[in-house]
Specification:
- The structure is a single chain.
- α2 packs antiparallel against α6 and α2 crosses α9.
- With 412 residues, the chain is an alpha+beta fold.
- The chain folds into two domains: 307 residues, 2-Layer Sandwich (BirA Bifunctional Protein, domain 2), CATH 3.30.930; 90 residues, Rossmann fold.
- A hairpin with a 5-residue loop joins β11 and β12.
- It starts with 20 loop residues before the first helix and ends with a helix.
- The mean pLDDT is 96.
- The protein is elongated, with a radius of gyration of 25 Å.
- It is built from twelve helices and 23 strands.
- 29% of the residues lie in helices and 30% in strands.
- The strands form six sheets. Strands 3, 7, 8, 9, 10, 11, 12, 13 and 16 form a nine-stranded mixed beta sheet that branches.
- The structure holds adenosine-5'-triphosphate and magnesium ion.
- Adenosine-5'-triphosphate binds next to β8, β13, β16 and α9.
- The site of adenosine-5'-triphosphate has 16 residues, from β8, β13, β16 and α9.
């Protein structure tokens, strides 16, 4: 891709309301643009990363046997009456009325819709287990939208739902999802910690959250210094220095960003919304459900928060918008142009995603923007091009080397 044709509106200054580093950088690097409080446009560079995260999720969920569907954002009140959540959900639910005075909401989550999708189909235990997911825009009128994509009022989520005959089978799938989540976040460059949490608005019996440890996190995690016990403070009520409820060790606290959440719903929705199957003993029973969320836009934000300095982003390999940034110092110089264009073609032919800074800008401007955008590898084509040499920078290691141009692809 040629940078002159890509829309990357980089900024010298971050917007005034950007408090945390990731929010500042995502605005300055031209990844997102705010439309209103908690509502953002994803610009081409940011949207490339979103699509990479989505595809990692798709790969890992397909592996465990969960298949993708797409449900509507617009949801009729009737279904929310069936589950009893129309009254319970409160002002976070975005409600609206159509021209015939029928009431709807913009989905903050999709338990009602998924139950409506499967209930007529699910008649026998033979159709179970079943695990479905979607990647969709969610709406929540959050009291305090902030930190950019961290807490939006419109945001992208992956939500999955599983259906089972027994609690034991749900337990097995809950573990499968938990393992897939750890892999997904690791591939996005994030180490996560699983902590017990409250079931909250969604309801059910048991829940765990996937936390990225970070000073800018809105959650407080309590964890034991001696064993693997960890819980959200909202759930455990423990304080720093308390005794661990499992082993008696010492409890510590730390801040975390919740990037994912998994719930054992049990029969809360299948009972109220009448999703039943005939079990092996010939009895009609409500299906046992699980639900599993990942905040995709929040994951992007957490990844930038973890992988950046004040000068710019340092993308983890798998979600970088491009792998290589080619920067000719003077693209009007015939030799530099020739070396650049040849390398550009070779990278494309090798299947390596490359961004070529062909803009008519000074080298200093190009370098500043390249620092902000933070692609994993940078190749600078300057005076040495006449000797067939270029400067090669591995952004993560911060190492600069001068290489024969023929060795660039091997080094990537
Ligand atoms: P929180 O406690 O942060 O409000 P939640 O418990 O309401 O999160 P879930 O309903 O479980 O979140 O949603 C699944 C995932 O969606 C969360 O783990 C989080 O990553 C993401 N998410 C939730 N609310 C938002 C939001 N307002 N903006 C961006 N992502 C969000
Ligand atoms: Mg919430």
């Amino acid at each position: 891709m040629k940078q002159s044709l890509l829309f990357v509106p980089t900024l010298k200054e971050a917007p005034k309301d950007a408090e945390v580093r990731s929010h500042k950088l995502m605005s300055r690097a031209g990844l997102v643009k705010q439309v209103a409080a908690g509502i953002y446009s994803y610009l081409p560079l940011g949207y490339r990363v979103i699509k990479k995260i989505e595809n990692i999720i798709r790969e890992e969920l397909d592996k465990i046997g969960s298949s993708e569907l797409l449900m509507p954002a617009l949801q009729p009140r009737d279904l929310w009456e069936e589950s009893g959540r129309w009254d319970k959900y409160g002002p976070e639910l975005m409600r609206l009325t159509d021209r015939k005075d029928r009431e709807f909401c913009l989905g903050p989550t999709h338990e009602e819709i998924i139950t409506q999708v499967v209930r007529d189909y699910l008649n026998s235990y033979k159709k179970l287990p079943l695990a479905l997911y979607q990647i969709q825009t969610k709406f929540r009128d959050e009291m305090r939208p902030r930190f950019g994509l961290m807490r939006g009022r419109e945001f992208i989520m992956k939500d999955a739902y599983s259906f089972h005959e027994t609690e034991a089978e749900l337990d097995e799938w809950y573990k499968k999802f938990a393992q897939a989540y750890t892999t997904i976040f690791a591939r996005c460059g994030l180490a996560t910690r699983i902590v017990s949490s409250d079931v909250g608005q969604i309801g059910g019996n048991e829940a765990d959250e996937f936390m990225v440890m970070s000073e800018v996190g809105e959650d407080t995690i309590t964890y034991c210094m001696s064993c693997s016990y960890a819980a959200n403070q909202e759930h455990s009520g423990l304080e720093e220095g308390d005794k661990c409820p499992v082993c008696g060790g010492t409890i510590k606290t730390a801040k975390g960003i919740e990037v994912g959440n998994i719930f054992k719903l049990g029969t809360k929705y299948s009972e109220s919304m009448n999703a039943k199957v005939i079990n092996k003993d010939g009895q009609q029973v409500p299906v046992v459900m699980g639900c599993y969320g990942i905040g995709i836009s929040r994951t992007l934000m957490a990844s930038v928060e973890q992988h950046s300095s004040d000068d710019g982003i340092v993308w983890p390999d798998e979600i970088a918008p491009f792998k290589v940034h080619l920067i000719p110092i003077n693209y009007d110089n015939d030799v530099q142009k020739e070396v650049t264009d040849t390398l550009y073609q070779e990278l494309i032919e090798s299947g390596i995603e490359v961004l070529l800074d062909d803009r008519k800008e000074r080298a200093g401007v190009k370098f500043k923007d390249a620092d902000l955008i933070g692609l994993p590898f940078r190749v600078i084509i300057g005076k040495d091009a006449s000797d067939g040499k270029v400067e090669f920078v591995d952004r993560k290691q911060g190492e600069k080397t001068v290489l024969p141009v023929a060795e660039v692809i091997n080094n990537i």
